[in-house]
Amino acid sequence: MQLKVGFVGGGNMSTAIVQGICKNEIRDSLNIWVSGPHKENLEHWKQYGANVTTSNGEVICNCDIVFIGVKPAMLDNALCNCYLPTKDPKNILFISMLAGVNIQKLKQVLKQLPFNSNVIRIFPNTPMSVGAGSCLYAIDENVTLEQCAVLEKLLAGCGLCEKVSEPLMDSLGILTGCGPAFMYMVIEALADGAVKQGVPRAMALRHSAQMMAGSATMVLQSNKHPGQLKDEVCSPGGCTIAGVTALENGKLRATMINAIEAATLRVKEMSKN
To answer: Is 52 helix (H, G, I), strand (E, B) or coil?
Structure first.
């Protein structure tokens, strides 16, 4: 049986998700649709076999699962002011990736559509495109275990997918969703440090990124606390502890904590609009 999956909004996050989905064996059983205001910006979706349209209503009417990937301020226009051809009533699972828009708000908007709908809220990240992402999801009270299983199977090629309570979506979601940008800055800064010492830039970036990936894998697979892993690298009077001291003097940990807090406060502000 073919599963019809749609994306209202074909931007970077939607693209990352479909790239991850296409790494999954489920891809061959999918019929993918995507909509956006400018068809020329959706041309790259054709390589994933997607049906491309400028009509959000066409996506909604043709799909059983619909990812919502528009800007939060455009939610009402994207869903309720679009042309919806008359069709027999059906159930649609809407999966929202809108930061700061809770399930209650989504359900209020979706009530205006001529369909029965359930809502799953997700907080994805761009590394899902390479199968190394992290995706949180929270559900409304009507979502079934079967629908949760379908979502997890759909995103199995994207990385880690974990169900959480909605109150955790903003704070933990900021860590997973915004964190990659913070880590890219760290990778770049460490590479810059090596370049300053005479290392060619491409080589420095390659090894900085590999070091970051390897360190993350150590945390996930060793079951050791990051502090313990750090201590295992720091020999007494050695070069690593000298570098760690420089990071502490620069307030690296406090800065990272403040970054998560600032981003979380911003998403809470967005939720009030």
So the answer is: strand
